[in-house]
Amino acid sequence: MPNGMPVNQKMVVRDKGNSSEMMRKYGLIAILLVAVIILSIVSDTFLTVTNLMNVLRQVSINGILAVGMTFIILTAGIDLSIGSLMAVAAVIATSIVSHDPSAVGWALLAGMAASGLLGGVSGTMSAKLNVAPFVATLAMMTIARGIALIYTNGRPIVVSSDPFKFLGQGYVGPIPVPVIIFIVVTVIMAVVLYKTKFGRYVYAIGGNENAAKISGIRVGGIKIWVYVINGFLAGLAGILLSSRISSGQPNSGMGYELDAIAAVVIGGTSLFGGRGSLLGTIVGVLIIGVINNGLNLLDVSSYWQQIIKGLIIAGAVILDQRAKRNG
Amino acid sequence: MGETILTMSGMTKAYFGVKALDGVSLDIRRGEVHALMGENGAGKSTLMKILTGLVKPDEGEIVFEGNSVQFANPQAALNLGIAMIHQELNPIPEMTVAENIFLGREPRYPGTPFVNTKKLEAQTRQLLEDFQFRAEPNTKVGQLSIAQKQMLEIIKAISYQAKLIIMDEPTSALSESEVKTLFQTIEKLKRQGVPIIYISHRMEEIFAITDRITVLRDGKLIGVRDTAELDSDGLISMMVGRSLDAIYPKEDAAVGGIVLEVRGLTRRPYFENVSFAVREGEILGIAGLMGAGRSEVMRALFGIDRADSGEVVMAGETVRVRHPSDAIRHGMAFVTEDRKELGLVLSRSIRENMTLASLSKASKGPFVSRSAEAAMCDEMTSNIRIKMNRMEQEVLTLSGGNQQKVVIAKWLLTSPKLLILDEPTRGIDVGAKAEIYKMMSKLAQQGLAIIMVSSELPEVLGMSDRILVMGEGEIRGEFARGDITQEQILECAIGGGRIA
Predict the structure, then answer these.
(1) Distance in Å, alpha carbon of B456 to nearest chain A alpha carbon
(2) Fewer C-beta within 10 Å: chain A N or C terminus?
(3) What ipTM was estimated for this complex?
(4) So what's the pLDDT on residue B89?
(5) pTM, to two decimals
(6) 3-state secondary structure B73-136
(7) Interface contact flag, B357 A2, Cβ < 8 Å
(8) Nearest CA-CA distance, residue A269 and chain B, Å
(9) Which UniProt key words apply to this protein (chain A) (predicted)?
(10) Cβ neighbours for B299, distance < 8 A, ≥ 6 positions apart
(11) Is the CB of B356 less than 8 angstroms away from the CB of A197?
């Protein structure tokens, strides 16, 4: 067995791997900077406060989703249901404010509680009943969509509550409210991931579930909580979306899971779990946002935008594979 | 017995400076069944890997049917007629018997890519009849028993015009009647003049069907004998005959009160009615063959698998262990057999791995204190020297011995009363081994109770105060240090005549 390999030789080889991982981390930020620089040169409007705030506002919903998705993917899971969870939270929250326009807090709480609960159901299916997360959340995707449609009878709920609209449309100074919420969510979740036992266990479970269990970690419980948290965040994102468009649409949020997964993957988090970072995800979210915005400013047709986004995702994963092979 | 068909001479192979094979020779004659014997790590598998083209030797010559040959790859060996029946069979379950036998070389209608199913079936039927194999050519392989699958592999090898067949532990998954069928097949091959290299740990089989025996130990050839000349004692001493060296620094430790007592622990079909106790400062060695149920007992004890029945008493108190977290809370620690699969999170840092099982000690509420964590790690690394660049490097980047030290450090950080070590030195180099033995000795002196499950007999004899021998899911015997030899352990473990 190659276990007799001299330590030194192995370390030299491996350290090259580590530095290539660093390269890819900074490489990602470099890609973002290059995109920003190119766009500032080719477009007069890109580098204005208004436009940058616009970019941030546009990415904030995907950003909140991607933060939750990062936790999921770190445990080697996936959640395809978040678009439907957004709709459930949106219709519940908007129905509450349509009865009592001032009950914004209750609307948020009830909507997020519902989506968190449904997330917990997916998590339980996968952690306790051994259903693959892909399948469990695929099932939840259609179940939750059905719940949103039944709840509203398929009709959108119009919002007239100004305090509710403030969540998605308001500004504090020059900064849009969704951006503030996105930042607060990111900071809280970064603390959870990097400063708590829970966060440590998330990485451990994704890296080696058996070793985590033998080390005394309640793997099932942690996984379920990860899906609950992801459900909460999906609900929050769904409510922000409904506030932004002033209506609770049972069909809203479709396809949002794909953008969130894309941001996480571009950000370098391994789909096999155990490796990745929130910083990477945030950069991934920004790269998608900046490029979307830039292509809009440059009048590139939205059809072409789809292709370009796909190429970026593929490129990021290829880069990831190469980094892994070198490591 | 016929003339020599294969001669391997002076076979030498080193992995990273460690010689796995050192000038070993092997000769095989037409129509003989030739046993290749040796403990794990003796060099059997390396020798067979060379013969089947999986590994290139550093030195040595292979003469097959009078020609000097070199195998660039497994296909080259197969083309010359050297086939290996592996321990783990991998036919494709969704395909039929015929499709599996002729996979990749199906008879076709001339000039077309279409398989001539009729011809395929006819050819297969002929082969099956030759071996009185009761299955239809179009039976799905998934429906066959393990023995039948094995037979299928043998038939497949014959259909390749094999001139030499290697069987690696062919009976490990077979029932007694299936073994009989296999032996009949082997007899038939013998009569056809096809020689067989037979690797097995089961003594009775060796004496039942082999003609000659080659014994390897520590990568060297110990001897070649006619089977009729040897008895099992003679064979065992050829296989193990080495003295315990000075690498076992077991020092006497004061043995105190009982730490763990296990009564009637049962988990069918793995083990039944297992009872034993370990005391403070004592190293309890558990020996036995692979599959004797040793690891399974430890897993159940630690709450990884659920036991059917039995009682576990820790420090005088009956405890219920339903999850490893219960075991840890009661003061147990478990260095598992397989570091990569069960012991480590390879993608995370040394620091995160070391504190994984004791993170609460470094935490206030849900929050981990990095300074408390660093202090814990520093204290541990001042006792256990891990060769590393920095604490933040991924565990993946460490050598086997250093990885094992990280696992041990992880468990010592839980401040256990009982440390379970399952094959603690498997796959690590001699230097790291000696360090781990020293560590065990020191920990015992500090009053820790230690259970060491090991298949390496010198290690069991060298380190244990007391030795339990397990076989087929039950405890077969208990011995004090110095009261027993390797041969006696093997005899006890074999019971029914089988050997590790």
Answers:
(1) 16
(2) N
(3) 0.85
(4) 62
(5) 0.74
(6) CHHHHHHHCEEEECCCCCCCCCCEHHHHHCCCCCCECCCCCCECHHHHHHHHHHHHHHCCCCCC
(7) no
(8) 12
(9) Cell inner membrane, Cell membrane, Membrane, Transmembrane, Transmembrane helix, Transport
(10) B305
(11) no
d(CA A190, CA A193): 5
Residue A196 to residue B366, Cβ atoms within 8 A: yes
Pick from A18, A200, A208: CB nearest B359: A200
> Most B CBs within 10 Å: which of A9, A20, A196, A214, as the mutation test of the B interface?
A214
Under a CB-based contact definition with an 8 Å cutoff, are residues B489 and B499 in contact?
no
d(CA A227, CA A123): 5
| Cis preceding linkage at B170, omega within 30 | no
Interface residues of chain A, partner chain B, Cβ below 8 Å: 1-7, 10-11, 14-15, 17-18, 195-198, 200, 203-204, 207-208, 210-218, 270, 274-275
Residue B495's Cα: distance from chain center in Å? 20
- pLDDT interval class at B90 (50, 70, 90): low
Count of CB pairs separated by less than 8 Å, A with B: 113
Q: What CATH homologous superfamily does B258-494 map to?
A: P-loop containing nucleotide triphosphate hydrolases (3.40.50.300)
Mean of pLDDT values over B430-459: 87
Chain A residues with CB under 8 Å of B357 CB are 215-216
Q: Say what the pLDDT of residue A23 is.
A: 57
Nearest CB neighbour to A204, from listed B15, B18, B345: B345
- What is the C-alpha separation between B314 and B258, in angstroms, rounded? 8
Closest partner residue to A5 (CB to CB) among B343, B345, B399 is B399
In chain A, residues with a C-beta closer than 8 Å to the C-beta of B325 are 216-218
For residue B358, what is the DSSP state?
G
**Chain A positions in Cβ-Cβ contact with residue B18 (cut-off 8 Å):** 4
CATH 3.40.50.300 maps onto chain B at 4-240, 258-494
In the predicted structure, residue B221 carries a pLDDT above the cut 50: yes
Nearest to B442 by CA among B251, B255, B257, B248: B251
pLDDT > 70? residue A83? yes
What dihedral do alpha carbons A164, A167, A168, A172 form, nearest 10°? Answer: 130
In chain B, what percentage of residues exceed pLDDT 90? 47
The proportion of chain B whose per-residue pLDDT surpasses 70, expressed as a percent, equals: 93
More confident residue, A253 or A15: A253
For B326-349, write each residue's pLDDT tens digit. Answer: 999 999 999 998 888 899 999 999
In the block, residue with structure tokens 């106790």: B277
**B396/A7 Cβ within 8 A:** no
pLDDT in tens, B157-191: 878 888 999 998 887 667 777 788 788 889 988 88
Chain A residues lying within 8 Å of B387, measured CB to CB: 7
Minimal Cα–Cα distance from A198 to chain B, Å?
A: 7
> In chain A, what is the straight-line distance between the N-terminal and C-terminal CA atoms, in Å?
20
Q: Is B255 helix (H, G, I), strand (E, B) or coil?
A: coil
- Per-residue pLDDT of B6-34, as tens digits, reads 999 999 998 766 778 999 999 999 999 99
Cβ distance A295 to A303 under 8 Å? no
Count CB neighbours of B317 within 10 A.
8
Residue A124's pLDDT is: 97
* Cβ atoms within 10 Å of B392's Cβ, excluding its own: 12
Whether the pLDDT of residue A15 is over 90: the answer is no
Q: Which residues of B84-112 are buried (b: 16+ CB within 10 A; e: fewer)?
A: bbeeeeebeeeebbbbbbbeeebeeeeee
Report the distance separating Cα A31 and Cα A140, nearest Å.
Answer: 35
Amino acid at position A130, single letter:
N
CATH architecture of B4-240: 3-Layer(aba) Sandwich (3.40)
